[in-house]
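sry for the spam today, last one i promise. struct tokens for design, 100 residues
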């Protein structure tokens, strides 16, 4: 069983740039989390409504929401240190995900 280790950094060793960077990262995660939840609800509801109403317009709206959901996930992955995605790979994904 692994043990948790708590590392404490004295406040005198934390620079203001580090604090600003941490706040900016927290804001990115918070906004991307809200975006992902919103897009997931939008996509799910519109695809369900499209199936129930046999509506091609709702199907198109739901599939567009799915592309937006995938895009928001890629943006979030760019900011995760464990799954860092380069800007080049993200741009390539966006190019494939959104045809002309």
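last one done:
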């Amino acid at each position: 069983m692994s043990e948790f280790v708590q590392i404490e950094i004295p406040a005198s060793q934390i620079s203001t740039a580090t604090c600003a960077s941490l706040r900016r990262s927290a804001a990115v995660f918070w906004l991307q989390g809200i975006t992902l939840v919103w897009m997931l609800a939008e996509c799910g509801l519109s695809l369900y409504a499209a199936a129930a109403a046999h509506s091609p317009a709702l199907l198109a709206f739901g599939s567009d929401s799915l592309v937006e959901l995938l895009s928001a996930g890629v943006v979030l992955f760019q900011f995760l240190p464990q799954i860092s995605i380069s800007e080049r790979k993200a741009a390539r994904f966006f190019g494939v995900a959104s045809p002309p």
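The chain has one domain: 27-97. ok im logging off now
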